[in-house]
Amino acid sequence: MTAAAIVIVLVSALAHAGWNLFGKKVSPSGAFFWHSTLWGVLLTVPVLVYQHRLLSQLDSGVWWLVVLTGFFQATYLSCLAAAYRHGELSVVYPLARSSPLLILLVGALFLGTANAITGAAVAGIVLIVAGCVILPMQKFRDFRLANYRNLATLFALLAAASTAGYSIVDDKATAQMRGLLAGQSLDAEVALVFVILQAWSALAWLSVGLLLQKTERRLLRELVSKWRSTMAAGVLILGTYALVVWAMAYADDVSYVVAFRQISIPISVALGWYFLGETIHAPKILGVLTILVGLLLVVLG
């Protein structure tokens, strides 16, 4: 990873942990993320109008990838909301954010791109995931499979699979866009436009899901009065991921960016403790330290 990618992802990680705090503190529901995504879409309409020439040059392959990434994003947000309803921020968030690393690493092996990932980075990825397995425990003797067999873990892992899905799709889509627009647009412009299109697609998929859930439709109405929180979360969600997609242009493999994003995990643990009063146990401390060592190895890699 270049220095530019590291700085971009650092800023993104701080914002990402912030909007997850919003989601847990205000209303961990699909309706909350629907409102947040809607704000992201509405506030960025002027950007799409300004970039209409860029949009006109996209081929059907890119548009199909936009549809696919929207599905993965909507699934991620829905599963993350469900996980937050059943578990703590400092437990759910690390599981949801770290598990995609193993999926991407295995995917790189099958796709033949693993030669772009160094041994140090692989070791760092393994440590990050190990730290996230340790982190949810109350006590070290609690390390039993039974403690992970719950709805919070299930939904967190489903959210993780969705993260891996949209990370792969987005890397491919933006690479195609940069190829189509070579010399016409900056990498940052491509990243921003693509993430806005992803938000439109995700909003459509979320709307379909909410139509099938009576409870979520009721929450949609109730959350209108909390527009400040949903708008703040929407801006953070879109801005955060635009930075991540931008950083992908400066990394040899998407796994580097996804791995280094996990610096948001220690940040989320600190936020959960400070703002939500969540307890800090010894395993959480060890887990965070293990994650930080893994992050250092990824950067060195």
In short:
The chain is mostly helical.
Question: Your description of this structure?
Answer:
The protein is 80% helix and 0% strand. It contains 14 helices and no strands. It is an all-alpha fold and 301 residues long. The longest helix has 30 residues, at 151-180. It is globular and about 60 Å long. It has helices at residues 3-26, 30-43, 45-50, 52-56, 60-86, 89-111, 119-134, 151-180, 187-211, 214-222, 227-248, 254-260, 264-276, 282-300. It starts with a helix and ends with a helix.
What's the tally of helices? 14
Mean residue pLDDT = 80
Overall strand count: 0
**Helix share bin:** over 70%
What structural class is derived from the secondary structure elements?
Answer: mainly alpha
**Strand content bin:** under 5%
Unreliable runs, pLDDT <50, ≥5 residues? Answer: none
Give the ordered list of helices and strands. Answer: HHHHHHHHHHHHHH
Query: What's the overall geometry?
Result: globular
Largest sheet: none
Distance between the termini: 8 Å
Radius of gyration: 19 Å
Helices and strands, with pairings:
Layout: H1 3-26, H2 30-43, H3 45-50, H4 52-56, H5 60-86, H6 89-111, H7 119-134, H8 151-180, H9 187-211, H10 214-222, H11 227-248, H12 254-260, H13 264-276, H14 282-300
Helix pairs in contact: 1-11, 1-13, 2-9, 2-10, 2-11, 5-8, 5-9, 6-7, 6-8, 6-12, 6-13, 7-14, 8-9, 9-11
Structural descriptors:
single chain, 301 residues, mainly alpha
